[in-house]
Design a protein that fits this description.
The chain is α+β, with helices and mostly antiparallel strands. It has nine helices and twelve strands. Strand 4 and strand 5 form a beta hairpin.
Amino acid sequence: MLIQSFSRTASDLADLSLLKRAWLLALSGWAVYFVYSVIHCLLYLSYVEKTPRGVWDSLVWTLSENSLWPALTAMLFIALSQCWPRKLYTAMAGLCFAAFIIALGGRVLLDFALNPDAEISSSVVYFGSKHLTVMVMVTLVWALILRPLDGLNASQLRTEPASAKPLNQVAAAPTEQSERHETLTVNTGTREVTVPIANIDSVTASGNYMDITCGAQNYVLRSTLKELEGQLRGHGFARVHRSHLVNLDAVTQIDNNQQVILRNGQRFSIGQRYLKNVVNYQKTTSSVTLSL
């Protein structure tokens, strides 16, 4: 029951846009932390320091310690999710460091404003380790919770309830209407969109992410090439290389059985073990230019 409930919650979160997911996770997480921190502060002052104070004083102290982090967390979640599919690891490290510097700088300035006699170097040392720990924890939350959610719904192939027949039952000249009912949910880096499978020219594996090209547009999809190949089976796609799937309807030229050229100008080398896919395609079409 608990697992099913968690799965439904994860699925609901995955259906939200990246912007909404990031802010919802950041604000709800920090709200829970602030409530815990206020309760801890009240108990500590009452039973350890023996100087009981009100809830308001505890809340003010809690907010002063981490006032910038709720907003920084959401923005960092969004930025990391945009950089990860593109493998911009240096940029991701820079973003985490920038968030740490901003949070630490804000807290040091607040400390100096409240106590002008305080030494800035002492404040940096005192608050530095705290905010470094927060930065690491925020990054871990993104890696363990938000990053898997980014790809949870994107790898699902969606087929509209349609009256169109399966492709293997359609006549020799399938209609555009039946093809358009078949779509794939992909990610632009900031949001999820649905694209017709017929518009996809190629799929290139990049770790656990797929780079999907539709004309001049590029998308990403969290999946494996094997999984996506199975989903696209029956839609005119074939493996030409261990890292590449191509839409055979997008092939305009086959260069001496060594390279395929697509309608968008992309070129892919043909792997020896996948050569039979190209040879079989040559036998069934006359609309492709062959270069010898």
